[in-house]
Amino acid sequence: MKLSCLQENLSRGLSIVGRAVAGRSTLPITQNVLLETDRSMLKLSATNLEIAITTWIGSMIEEEGAFTVPARLLTEFVNSLPSDRIDLEMEEGGGVLRFVCGRAEARIHGADANDFPPIPQVEEGVAARIGAQDFKLAISRVAFAAATEESRPVLTGVEAKLSGDRFTLAAADGFRLAVQHGALAEPVESDIGVIVPARTLNELSRLLGDQNDTVDIMMVPARSQVMFKIGGVEVVSQLVQGAFPNYDQLIPQKYDSRSVFDLQKLLRATRSAAIFARDGSNIIRLQMTPGEEEAPGKAVISARSEEVGENQGEVDTEAIEGGESKIAFNSRYLQEVLAVLERGQVALETTTSSSPGVFKPIGSDDYVHVVMPMFVQW
Amino acid sequence: MTIKLLSPELAAQIAAGEVVERPVSVVKELVENSIDAGSSRITVEIKGGGIEEIRVTDDGSGIPAAEAPLAFQHHATSKLDAPEALDAIATLGFRGEALPSIAAVSKMTLTTRPDAEDMGYFTEFAWGRPVGDGARGSPPGTSVVVADLFGNLPARRKFLKSAAAEAGRIHDLVARYALAYPEIAFRLAVGERQSLATPGSGRDADPLLAVYGAAVAAGMLAVSGADPETGYRVEGFASAPSLHRANRSYMTFFINRRWIQNRMLTFALEEAYHGLLPEKRYPIAALNLVLPYGDVDVNSHPAKREVRFHQEGKVYSTLQRAVRSALVSAAPVPELGAERRGTWAPFSGANVGRGFFRSQFDAGASGDSRPAAGGDNRVDAGLDGAGPPDAALTPQQALPALRVVGQVRLTYIVAESPDGMYLVDQHAAHERVLFDRIVRRAAQREVQSQPLLSPVAVELTPGQVATLEAHREFLQTYGYELEHFGENSYLVRAVPAILVTQDPGKSLLDVLDLVAFDGLLRERGDILAASVACHSAIRAGQSMTEAEMRSLLEQLEVTDNPHTCPHGRPTLIHFSSYHMEREFGRR
After folding, report:
1. Nearest in space to A178 (alpha carbons), one of A374, A376, A361, A362
2. According to the CATH classification, is domain A251-371 in 3.10.150.10?
3. Strand order of the sheet with strand B258-260?
């Protein structure tokens, strides 16, 4: 293998695939990055066996070949180089890849490319297309609600349903449920329902960045793997096998009380309360009182800890429908849902203080977040 | 007092005590007799945890009417005829103690009919005295009814646990024999409820399914191996490394299909899993060792629970190798997605990284009110490997100011203080911190319960049901909301808030196992607090940042008893400056 490429291209490519490099692994070669000539490009791949990322960078190929070198070492070395041309060459006898960049030179010991786990190919299969920012928004609003505990694998994933020109992402961890709907860039021919690991979607969300392009989604017919194509990057991920719980029945269809908040005001009061909640119970209490006649009403957001003290904040609501209500949430769950809604107004729908609370952004029917309240003595 | 011979009645009652300890011992003796009689169907029915009534019915060979009265004499057995035979015992029973011992402490009726005879025969005893016998129509086989157990020994009865707990033990026993004898159809009825039934199909997988349920059965690996030199064989099932439990009670061993308890075998099995299971997690297994009858002595314990081996090392290595090879051959070939992360409890110390570093001993902290624990012999004793520490003996003693040096083996925190070096067990220390917090909260009755969006159903064993029912109120105090859901199923509707990062069903099973296992603590409430603490504490093998370690030590300093974890293990070991200097020959 012998080729030349630009330092900034190699650096960028390595930072993209670097996210798939295994941390500590029983298979040491997964801590390497695979460098491979592919027509007139240099192909970079990394995998931690659950997710694989591949990207291509422009290069001058003099001699075809493939080799793997430790990802972290290579990335740090390349990042330390000046913005210049880098020449790569396999040494005679193999086993060592030589890098020359200006007056810097390095020899890096690596491993044979044949030992690298094969990156699954998803050439054909069902395809769909989603706008990058639509997808990114949906991921940000849903993926955090997936379970992190591995004992119920389906809940560590996000269910993606594609049907006609609509998509739905849903995640649940037993205590809360997030569902986001959106429009596909192009309608799908047949309906698809798969469970994608939340980790994959989080990586994807990072790669999407500010891109305004579209994401192509391809699935092998057996539905064991999925590939996302964004610009010049391919992400292949395992799918979670199993049946995702039927969540429709978990979304309350009616409410006794509905309070509309300015998101920023509610978030600020919640963050203050969270400081007090975290040392003790992690419980944040919300008490909503409708206003007299035309007045909009108010909400008291409070937390207390036996050790550090207590906190109470009052927030004006934009509107309250129905009577007084009170509900207590785990502070993390409350903060997380408010954080992903970012701006605008949010409605909190409740029935009793022991039945689920429903958060919905105002002005859009696309998102529903259901949180189970905590039992507290009021 | 004058010395006199015990009355036969009293002597019988004393002898009975060795064999018949509790209802489960009766069931064991009767079931073993039924197995020895070549039965293909054994039914056990109990009422009131076996205290009110135990009924064991089989379709075995029966006892000829002429011999039946003899069966109730001490040391009367059909299973042994010459002393040499004692060296090679193939039957489960042989001592001739069981029936007379049980008869001495209960009202007992035996009805039996060998297949060849037309008429059955019954004999009845009350507190060891015959009260009637004669001919009686009965199906072929033997049926024994034992009622009012220990009715004549109120003292013994006082030591029995609740009916549910005794029923749990009986279930446990019948389940183990069902595993060892797949060709026998076992049925256990507790009151009106059928608690276990195996088809007697002869297929090993069937009792496994009946006893442990589909989820566990699917995760079990077949074990089969032999030592070519001795001919010892091991057969049975052991759980794949992804399946494990919080206590050792799921490891079952049989020697020539006799259920035994043996620490050496337990150890051999755990060794086979070495490096495959998280800390303090144990496999599920049912393994039968096939040895020549002469190579094992079962005659060393009245209840025959313990055995002695002729070649202990060989037994050990045969078992360990067989299990290890089953585990290794089942290990998946690395492939995309095959890598499974362990399910370590995430470090839930909400306080990590906050508060200033009080422990810096050069920052004048040593001038505060906490005295240095310079002369703490008990902690020092750990260095010399002296006897187990006893929490009760530990004076309430504050820790000296500790400075974090680093972490060893991802398990121990190294810290120094003016009086030397400390090794802190990170799991034990965190357990202590959480334990104190949980107990404090529970005392304030501040329930922290997080309900589930949709309830999770868990399948429990009768033993776990007994534990759950016995501790229901405490479970509630800590935030569990559980609902009975038919048979041995329960719905988990809410979990303690501290456990939200865990799988609700799995954490409940762990908590129940720990509660059942842990008899060390002062009060029942503490047991639960300790289980919950243990469950959510940082594990060994988890790397900690310096800030986390510092925070943990700070929190440990302010606990009531920083020297031991809630189970009584030490949280830290002290290497005194004096000791180190002496070891290095500086003094």
Report:
1. A361
2. yes
3. B220-226, B233-239, B285-290, B251-255, B258-260
Q: Mean pLDDT, to the nearest integer, of A178-196?
A: 91
**For residue B373, which phi and psi values (nearest 5 degrees)?**
-90, 55
Q: Which of B550, B549, B576, B571 is nearest to B561 (CA)?
A: B571
B490 shares a domain with B361: yes
- The answer to whether B62 touches B142, Cβ cutoff 8 Å, is yes
Q: Answer whether residue B511 is part of any domain.
A: yes
Range of the domain at B273: 219-329
Q: For an interface test with B, which of A372, A376, A378 has the most B Cβ atoms less than 10 Å from its Cβ?
A: A372
Distance separating alpha carbons of residues B436 and B439, to the nearest angstrom: 5
For chain B, the domain total comes to 3
Which pLDDT belongs to residue B377? 33
d(CA A264, CA B281): 46
User: What angle, 0 to 180 degrees and rounded to 10, lies between the N-to-C axes of helices B546-557 and B426-443?
Assistant: 50
Measured between alpha carbons, how far is B8 from B5 in angstroms, rounded to an integer? 9
Residue A333 belongs to what H/E stretch?
helix A331-341
Mark whether B494 and B368 lie in a shared domain: yes
Is the pTM above the cut of 0.80?
Answer: no
**How far apart are the C-alpha atoms of B370 and B307, rounded to whole Å?**
53
The answer as to CATH 3.10.150.10 being correct for domain A126-248 is yes
What pLDDT shows up at residue B546?
82
* Integer Cα distance of B120 and B142 in angstroms: 9
Q: How far apart are CA B535 and CA B518, in angstroms?
A: 13
**In chain A, positions 314-373, which contact chain B (CB-CB < 8 Å)?**
330, 354, 356, 370, 372-373
* Buried residues in A239-260 as b, exposed as e (16+ CB within 10 A): bbeeebbebeebeeeebebbbb
Residues of chain B contacting A330 with CB distance shorter than 8 Å: 450, 497, 500
Q: Are residues B420 and B569 in the same domain?
A: yes
Contact check, Cβ <8 Å, A47/B336: yes
Q: What is the DSSP letter of A107?
A: E
8 Å CB contact between B366 and B400: yes
For chain B, say whether A66 makes contact (Cβ under 8 Å).
no
Bridge partners of B415, per DSSP, are: B404, B422
Asked if residue A100 has pLDDT above 60, the reply is: yes
Token pair for A152: 């119920």
Measured torsion, CA atoms of residues B540, B545, B546, B550, in degrees rounded to the nearest 10: -60
Nearest CA in chain B to A304: B446
When scoring B242, B352, B439, B454 by the number of chain A Cβ atoms within 10 A, the one with the most, hence best to mutate, is: B454
End-to-end CA, chain B? 62
- Return the CATH number at B417: 3.30.1370.100
- Only one residue has tokens 């919300």, namely A286
Supply the pLDDT for residue B12. Answer: 66
Residues B74 and B134 in one domain: yes
pLDDT of residue A75: 95
Cα distances (angstroms) measured from residue A336 to each of A141, A339, B313: 9, 5, 57
pLDDT < 70 positions in chain B: 1-2, 5-6, 8-19, 68-70, 73-96, 275, 299-305, 330-398, 441-447, 514-529, 531, 567-568
Residue A313 burial (CB count, 10 A) = 17
Same structural domain, B432 and B502:
yes
Q: Strands B285-290, B251-255: parallel, antiparallel or unpaired by DSSP?
A: parallel
In a domain, B230, yes or no: yes
In angstroms, the CA B285 to CA B223 distance is: 10
Amino acid occupying residue B576: S
Pairing of strands B220-226, B53-58: unpaired
If one counts every other C-beta atom within 10 angstroms of the C-beta of residue B535, the result is 20
Is the CB of residue A301 less than 8 Å from the CB of residue A266? yes
The CATH number of the structural domain formed by A2-115 is 3.10.150.10
Tokens of A216: 């192509």
